[in-house]
Amino acid sequence: MEAPPTGKPMRADALRNYERIIASARQAFAEQGPDAPLEDIARRTGVGIGTLYRHFPNRDVLIEAVYRSSIEELSARAHELLQKLSPAEAFEQWLREQVQWVMANRSLATTLKAGMDHGSPTFTLCRSVITEASTALLEAAQGAGAIRADIEPRDLLRFGHGIGVACETTPEAAERLLAVTLDGLRVAPGSATRS
Fold first, then answer.
1. CA diameter of the chain
2. What is the CATH number of domain 9-57?
3. Domain 65-185: which topology?
4. Given pLDDT bands bounded at 50, 70 and 90, which one contains residue 112?
5. What letters, b where the CB count within 10 A reaches 16 and e where it falls short, cover 162-178?
6. In 26-182, where do the E strands start and end?
7. C-alpha distances in angstroms, 166 versus 62, 88, 99, 100, 170?
8. Which of these, 137, 112, 141, lies nearest to 125 by C-alpha position?
């Protein structure tokens, strides 16, 4: 995880506390929603509430940091998968992980987006890194002749988001919908890449 976007370097112990608070907050938000008590987050982290407030002066700042960290991890995962798997396998695995991310983080993302200016640095950064990740995956899979040429990076994000939202209360349906979606995205064996 990167240091907070304040432009100021942090001492190693302060950076550790910052990262631990974000990890605890992510867990608390996943369990209790974005209204999870900040005192509980501090207690989970093993720091005083004053330390939490020094890093995150209010709940909105903490929610933004958790969301940004989560998007950065999901985006980094795309590049990790491209290093380990074939382009087609990386594409499919990341789409699955994106759907899981949407199902786990939708309430947090909804809360953040409702109160955030779409031109804000956090929104701009998140949109940029997730678009770059989906572009890298899609271009590799299309270059390998595995995925249709008429699919765009934003389409990949829309598919993952749509399935995640649709299956939020019925997660058992996600894999079936993913399979149908992937069948439609793949280039049929023996055919030319569709454009």
1. 63
2. 1.10.10.60
3. Tetracycline Repressor; domain 2 (1.10.357)
4. low
5. ebbeebeeeeeebeebb
6. none
7. 27, 24, 10, 12, 8
8. 112
